[in-house]
Amino acid sequence: MLAEEIRECLLSDGTKAIAVRDSDGNVKVFQGMCPHQRRALAEGDLYDDVLTCSAHMWSFDVRTGEGAHGTEAHIAQYPTKIEDGQVLVDPSLVEPVALWK
Amino acid sequence: MTAVSEGPRQDTAGTTPARYEDAALGFRNHWYPAMFSSDVRETEFKTLRILGEDILLKRVDGTVYGVRDECLHRGFQFSAKPECFTKNTVTCWFHGFTYSLADGRLVGIPSDPDSRLVGKLKLRSYPIQERKGMLFVFIGDIEPPPLEDDLPPEFLADDMHIVPFHSQEVASNWRIAADSASELNHTFIHRSDALLQYWRQPLPFAEIPRGNNPYEGWILHEGPGFKGFTDAFGDAIPVFEFKFECDGEIGVIRSAFDPRTEGGSVNFREMQATLTLPCGLRIGPWGPNPGDPTSADYWHYEWYVPIDETHHRYIIAWGRKVADAEEALRAEHDVRTRWSYLEYEGFNASDITANEASQRAYGEPGYEFGEKENLSRVDGYVLTWRRIAAKHNRGLQVPYGGKR
Question: Which of B 175-214 lie inside 8 A of A, CB atoms?
């Protein structure tokens, strides 16, 4: 994965996730939908560790998943492990954050 | 998926602010401008639909009263055939149930004079204040806060002479109008407006923000009093000409007047716009004589009052600080004979076109408000407004507070 690249992936439980590489070089996997209004975060923009949704500029720090630039929500991060160059994701204990109704 | 709530915030009034996305009918527990004083004359009934509620209005000995326009007996709409046997009551045309207009209480039933319901049943009655030639109605359930907390700045100032001059039903949700109230880049729609011709005004039709954080660069009003935010014009980079290319063809968009050769009449760097809860804007100083930017001393006030999910009432009033009655009269004359036409037909009518033609997208079934948007750093205005509005409103509007 390249820096500033956002890759969308489908997890084993059917939910969408995104994989990004933060500035320390670590691959992080987060929920694929923006907590605000279910826009795919893969359509967003990643720069300087800040992921910005393409709909309403909700922003998240991809080192932690916390809201950035005043965004008051966070995105859920999936535990991962790397085996043979593959990123393995465990979705079992993670509930994506969703503020929409 | 499980919804995770951010946890409701509570303000001092004990109300819980609503999400902006949910506020199709506006925010409850606020004062809203309803009509002009001149709209409600002694002896006649008027009806008003506001935030999804229907109100019957009547002026009695100078004071305007408002009650719910629906009989408690079997739901007859009083205004369909209003009956009045004393000046301060309304009688239902259907079965004669009679109510006091001052507080809505049932005062008599012809078929059951001794009914225990008399004096006990009450129509919902609305707090109304008449100020500066306008009627303001409180839609809510709490003790109404001071009116000025729900008005743009200085509207009620003693020396501010207000001339309300336009009120119109617009076929769009109120939020579409509020979101672009004085948003910098919507000047694109005013590019060829008649008011600019009158002023020979080079108006930038786009503004490029200098910063990247859409939430920066605004003055927030979150303390006591009115809640909202102010944008000072002149921070952004104005655009008077724009060229684009598509498949080898070049398109050019130009401002109607060239800033290099035309002085214009408005000093935008002096202007400020303040958008406040629940739905009001003040912008100015405005209204200069052609060619004389120093003569701008009007304040433009406007509101986008929810009527129902797909309509709002667009109300405009101009204000001017005056020293005496003579100056007030001159301002009144000036607004009514010149600016009311130039400002509305020559400028604000474009806003209505923009708002009405956006309703379809914003009201599309199956989508939340704004779900189809693609905003960027230039949309700080709308993002900041929504954030302030969502933080400080006094609750979600549900018609009649969800009660019968």
Answer: 213-214
Nearest CA to B16 among B397, B396, B347, B400? Answer: B396
Structure tokens at B43: 């002896």
Is residue B48 within a helix (H) or strand (E), and if so which, with residue range? strand B45-50
Centre a 10 Å sphere on the Cβ of residue A8 and count the other Cβ atoms it contains. 13
CA distance B149 to B340: 27
> Which residue among B2, B22, B373 sits closest to A56, beta carbon to beta carbon?
B373
B327 burial type by CB count under 10 A (0-12 exposed, 13-18 middle, 19+ buried):
middle
Residue B235 pLDDT > 80 = no
For residue B56, which of B69, B37, B43 has the smallest C-alpha distance? B69
| Residue type at position B203 | L
CA pair distance B317, B131, nearest whole angstrom: 12
Q: Establish whether this prediction's ipTM goes over 0.90.
A: no
Q: Per residue in B325-372, pLDDT tens? A: 999 999 999 999 999 999 999 999 999 999 999 999 999 999 999 999
CA distance B137 to B315: 14
Q: Per-residue DSSP letters for B73-107? A: TT---GGGS-B-SSTTEEE-TTT--EEETTT-BEE
Q: What is the share, in percent, of chain A residues with pLDDT greater than 90? A: 75
pLDDT in tens, B137-165: 999 999 999 999 999 999 999 999 999 99
pLDDT of B8 reads: 45
Residue indicated by tokens 């991962």: A80
Chain A residues with beta carbon closer than 8 angstroms to that of B1: 95-96, 98
Q: Distance (Å) from the C-alpha of residue A83 to the closest C-alpha of chain B?
A: 29
Can you tell me whether residue B326 is helix, strand or coil? helix
Q: Which helix (H) or strand (E) holds B384?
A: helix B380-392
At B384, which amino acid appears? T
Q: What is the DSSP string of A34-91?
A: -TTT--BGGGSEEETTEEE-TTT--EEETTT--EETT------EE-EEEETTEEEE--
Give me the residues of chain A with pLDDT under 50, please: none
